[in-house]
Amino acid sequence: MPVMPAPGPDAQPLTPPFDGFVQRQIDAAKQDLAQRLGVDLAAIEVASVEAVTWPDGALGCPRPGMVYIQVLIDGLRILLRVGDQIYPYHSGNNQPPFLCDLQLGPQSIPPRQAPGNTP
After folding, report:
1. How confident is the model at residue 10 (pLDDT cuts 50, 70, 90)?
2. DSSP secondary structure string for all residues of 86-113
């Protein structure tokens, strides 16, 4: 099972209805992914949204060879699903959401479990 970049221990799951700022961030992430994949917005599902405090300027998505400011940054981790693939979007510090792990591509995720059928 692939390992996804994990937010800090203080991640707070958010649930709909989202406030205006969070909804705009989700919409921007969905628009970006639709354009990247060449799919209709309706094909993109919001798997989860979390408010996170990133430990540094990498916003949970460090790139090799880069140096980042060492300061706590409030942001979001938005997971979008297309079919059986999940795409992690990160944001923070008033930056629009960006697709994390471009070099790795999408992360495979297991099929959703029916309520009460957890392994």
Report:
1. confident
2. EEEEEEETTEEEEES-TTT-PEE-PPPP
